[in-house]
Each structure stands twice: as structure tokens, then as C-alpha cells.
Design goal:
InterPro entries: Glyco_trans_14. Keywords: Glycoprotein, Glycosyltransferase, Golgi apparatus, Membrane, Signal-anchor, Transferase, Transmembrane, Transmembrane helix. Its main location: Golgi. It is a single-pass type II membrane protein. It is a single chain. By secondary structure, the protein is of the alpha/beta class. It contains 13 helices and 13 strands. The strands form 5 sheets. Strands 6-5-4-7-12 form a 5-stranded mixed beta sheet, sandwiched between helices. It has a two-stranded antiparallel ribbon with strand order 1-13. The chain has a two-stranded parallel ribbon with strand order 2-3. It starts with a strand and ends with a strand. The N terminus and C terminus are likely disordered.
Length: 334
């Protein structure tokens, strides 16, 4: 039985007999964590055991000290490179752990930093990515508003950059800064191979509570301290090309062929334009395009995964399926 777990550290913890507090060396930390988990206890180190050395080191020393994988581990992985888009806005340490966990030299990585993020954060991310020839910042940054078109546009900016990459990636996986992988790169590759060129875009016809998201016009409001989306009473026109709108998760795995379709096909361009004043368009954009009758069949990217099975598939790949930015502790056994 393999145990894969995720830690997010807290600065302050209440006293509890079930919480073990300790400051351990890096070498003994993992063993102690496993021991306490198998005893049914929750383990919280009192300090960050994975302190970054980036600011004080050369790239070579940093990669060595942080135990980055710098050589492809198998022929199978070399023949099936992946692309990642990661959208972030805070918590550099959390992003650093995520990036270290998903990094492989044969893959390619596009990172979108919220335009509203601090200069300190932006510079730290840039310094990190400069150490890796197959990782880069998105060519265009958006001021991201949760629930707005800017969140989808951030992913699309990276998808466009990745489509121009010389790396022959097979699938693009989008993540946010609070994600963490549940599987190794090889396990992810083997899992994606089973979809035989189909996308992972789980979704369903719109439930009643979601109809208003695309029925009424919504607007992004940008403020210095708080940005949000408001709903108006103005009705939207019908979707373009008589499309049926589906709803699903914003986090998907897309083939390169589908990525090119999204960037170039008129159906996709028109749906994007129509979606700009909807609520959380990233939750209907991918899944709707992946279910256009006729088009997806002719291009062989239709998804056969309904919501329950599609979500099971996606949970294989990630720890936090809906990217909730909150402290969590989870483990999965298989």
C-alpha cells in the first residue's frame, strides 16, 4: 500500500494531545511523519523543514540542495512529455514545493502570476523559473478576479505559449498554487495514456443553481484591496452556434490537438467572446467545447467521461480537485 500525503503548515496551533509538536532534521522528518500517521495521530512540525536556499545559492546548488530531478527517469516518460499551466498569486513557499513536485526535465511549464501580486512575489517566481530552461512566465499576465473571465484568460495565455513550445507535449494539465500531485510523473503518464487522446473535462448539463451564471450578464470589478464579480439583471443572448452549455470543473487535462482547436477554431473563439460576461466561465468553457456534436468526433478529442467517472479520473492526478485556497491535510492510499 502506497501512502501519498500533503502537508500545509500552520503558524499557530491549539494545544491537543493528538498533535505532536517537534523540530526534526530533514533526514528524520518523513519517517516520523509516517510513524505518527499510522498511529492515527496528526503531525505538525514547528518549523518549515523545506526552507528555500534560492536567494543564497546559484541555480546549480539550489537544484542540488532541493533535490530536483534533472534527468528523465524512463523511456516511457521521455516519449510522453507533459505541459503544465500553474496560476498563482501568493505563498511562494507553497508554489516552490508544488513546482519541485511536478518538475521533470522532459516536460514544459508555464506559470501565470496574477498581475496584482506583489513585486516581491513576482521577482521570487521569476528567479526560480530562470533556473530551468523548460519553465517560463506567461507572456501576458492578467489581473485575476475569482469567478471572472480573467481566470480563464490566465490559463489561455499559458496554453497559447505552450502551443508555441518546441517541446512535443501530449497533454496540458492546469493547476493552481494550492494544488499538489498525488501521483508520480510516470503514474500520471500511464494514466493519461489510457484516455487514448481524449480530454479529461468532466461535466454535466447545467444544474438549476448554475443556470444564472450564463443567463445573466456579469461584470468584473477591480479594486485595490478587493476584486469581485457582480451579477446584473441584464439577460445574455443565446450561446453562439446554438451550442449546448455544459458545466464542470475548471481543472482539466487537454491534448495538444484540442489546445490548438481552442486557440484557432471559430467555435472556440466565439464561445470565449460570449463567455466574457458570464460567471466562472472556466467551469463551462472547456467542457462545452469538448462536447460539440460532430466537431469533437471529427477531431477525435471527445470526452466519454461523465461527471462521476471524470472526477474520479481527475482526483487521481491532484490532491485538491477544486483548488480551495485553505489549509488542508490529506492522504490517499492505493
Amino acid at each position: 500500500m502506497a501512502l501519498i500525503f500533503v502537508f500545509v503548515y500552520k503558524n499557530e496551533l491549539r494545544e491537543d494531545k493528538r498533535f505532536l509538536r517537534a523540530s526534526l532534521s530533514n533526514a528524520s522528518l518523513l519517517a516520523e511523519v509516517c510513524h505518527q500517521i499510522f498511529k492515527g495521530k496528526v503531525f505538525y512540525p514547528t518549523e518549515n523543514a523545506l526552507k528555500t536556499t534560492l536567494r543564497e545559492s546559484t541555480c546549480y546548488d539550489y537544484m542540488a540542495q532541493s533535490h530536483y530531478i534533472t534527468e528523465t527517469l524512463s523511456k516511457e516518460e521521455a516519449g510522453f512529455p507533459l505541459a503544465y499551466t500553474v496560476t498563482i498569486h501568493k505563498d511562494f513557499g507553497t508554489f516552490e514545493r508544488l513546482f519541485r513536485a511536478i518538475y521533470m526535465p522532459q516536460n514544459v511549464y508555464c506559470v501565470h502570476v496574477d498581475e496584482k501580486a506583489t513585486d516581491t512575489f513576482k521577482n521570487a517566481v521569476k528567479q526560480l523559473l530562470n533556473c530551468f530552461p523548460n519553465a517560463f512566465l506567461a507572456s501576458k499576465m492578467e489581473p485575476v478576479v475569482y469567478g471572472g473571465i480573467s481566470r480563464l484568460q490566465a490559463d489561455l495565455n499559458c496554453i497559447k505559449d505552450l502551443a508555441a513550445s518546441e517541446v512535443p507535449w501530449r497533454y496540458a494539465i492546469n493547476m493552481c498554487g494550492q494544488d499538489f500531485p498525488l501521483k508520480t510523473n510516470k503514474e500520471i503518464v500511464q494514466y493519461l495514456k489510457g484516455f487514448k487522446g481524449k480530454n479529461i473535462t468532466p461535466g454535466v448539463l447545467p444544474p438549476s443553481h448554475a443556470i444564472g451564471r450564463t443567463k445573466y450578464v456579469h461584470q468584473e470589478l477591480l479594486h485595490q484591496k478587493n476584486s469581485y464579480v457582480i451579477k446584473t439583471t441584464k439577460l445574455k443572448p443565446p450561446p453562439p452556434h446554438n451550442m449546448t452549455i455544459y458545466f464542470g470543473t475548471a481543472y482539466v487535462a487537454l491534448t495538444r490537438e484540442f489546445a490548438n482547436f481552442v486557440l484557432q477554431d471559430q467555435h472556440a473563439l466565439d464561445l470565449l467572446s460570449w463567455s466574457k460576461d458570464t460567471y466562472s466561465p472556466d467551469e463551462h468553457f472547456w467542457v462545452t467545447l469538448n462536447r460539440i456534436p460532430g466537431t469533437c468526433v471529427s477531431l477525435n478529442f471527445c470526452s466519454s467521461a461523465a461527471w462521476p467517472h471524470g472526477m474520479q479520473a481527475w482526483r487521481v492526478l491532484r490532491a485538491l480537485p477544486f483548488c480551495q485556497p485553505q489549509p488542508t491535510q490529506s492522504w490517499v492510499s492505493d
